[in-house]
Amino acid sequence: MDDRQFRNAMGTFATGVTVITTEVEGEVHGMTANAFMSVSLNPKLVVISIGDKARILNKIKQSKTFSVNILAENQQEISMIFAGQLKEHRGVVFDRLAGQPVVSGALAQVTCEVSSEYVEGDHTLFIGKVTEINLEDGDPLLFYKGRYRSLQEEATVASK
Ligand code: FAD
Question: Is the pTM of this model over 0.70?
Fold first, then answer.
């Protein structure tokens, strides 16, 4: 089985888009990620999966904390910035939640403490114990088959 076939198959799983943020010695680092899942209600746990080449990997290992920011439909540019797809930009404003940096305007900001980590193949899974949540109204940014989408766009396609 080749890599393209695996990527294409995984790309048929439509997801939202998050930016994972963490902070080490006063420096905030962010990375776009859609490998995110809720794990447990009691205690409240989530999981993220970070590639072994991502610079944020060692930063989360150091800080032992991360935030998951679920992006709104108007935040495609933010996603592209933190995926390294947009080099020229105005800069990003971070809010603070429970003392941790979070992305302004995200639909949900979820701060976590790392409760465990597992190296699996070329990724590391971090289980995060949720410490605080902030929720905003709005529609999500979506990612499907390698493209950004919006619920509005899908509704237009469906009504044609
Ligand atoms: P870097 O290359 O260090 O940073 C990424 C970009 O963010 C750089 O351009 C950097 O300038 C910018 N940036 C970082 N911090 C700041 C800051 N404080 N202010 C302004 N800009 C900043 N990879 C995974 O490992 N797991 C996933 O689940 C995952 N899902 C993805 C989903 C989507 C939709 C996309 C598009 C990509 C995904 N990726 C995922 C790939 C990942 O986002 C990129 O490979 C990323 O560039 C690697 O992160 P890094 O820590 O090495 O980031």
Answer: yes
